[in-house]
Design goal:
single chain; alpha/beta; about 200 residues
Length: about 200
């Protein structure tokens, strides 16, 4: 992508407290890494699981973290209380829209259905030429292998174009994220012309 300056990154991740600590450790490492590189994080605003670890990692390293939280989650007091900024929005749809607004890339850490929904919507928007920035999957402990295989199968079976394999990048650990963003292939709004194979 030849992107020299990365200022703001959206991170999709989970709020599960039951998942193995290897996932929250990776999230914490990513938060710290982005903060040390003076990159603002935009994420879902949660305080526990990988969400909390991501934010805490960044904040402990002097970073800036913006959380986007729907009102009903705020009512349940799910929001992180020490963020640089916590924006309360009306709906999940508004949350997803604001999370990728004006960011330089999107990163998906392992997560559940909410993370899958956010990630796949962003992949779809990029496929349609509506979102043009890098998308990086952090494949901790091979978590995303089944999803990657499914996406590759969609290409093989011609539900997606071969060029769509360039929509996302895959790394094994947080430390590889920034390099993957910088090396991501350029993407154009002209992608809409081959959105359907």
């Amino acid at each position: 992508m030849k992107q020299s300056v990365i200022r703001k990154i959206c991170v999709y991740c989970a709020s599960s407290r039951q998942a193995d600590s290897v996932y929250s450790d990776s999230a914490h490492n990513l938060g710290s890494l982005l903060a040390k590189n003076h990159i603002t994080i935009v994420y879902g605003g949660g305080s526990v699981g990988s969400m909390g670890a991501l934010a805490n990692g960044a904040l402990s390293s002097g970073g800036k973290v913006i959380g986007i939280l729907p009102q009903f989650m705020h009512d349940f007091e799910w929001g992180h209380k020490r963020l640089t900024e916590l924006r309360i929005v009306e709906s999940m749809q508004e949350r997803k829209r604001l999370m990728i607004e004006d960011v330089d890339a999107t990163v998906a850490l392992p997560g559940g259905s909410g993370t899958f929904e956010e990630l796949l919507e962003t992949i779809t928007q990029k496929r349609l030429g509506l979102y043009l920035k890098p998308i990086v999957l952090v494949n901790t402990c091979n978590y995303y292998d089944p999803l990657i295989a499914m996406l590759e199968s969609a290409v093989q079976k011609q539900f997606m174009d071969q060029r769509h394999l360039q929509v996302w990048q895959v790394v094994e650990q947080a430390e590889e994220v920034l390099e993957a963003i910088r090396k991501a292939p350029a993407w154009s709004s002209n992608a809409v012309k081959f959105a359907a194979p």
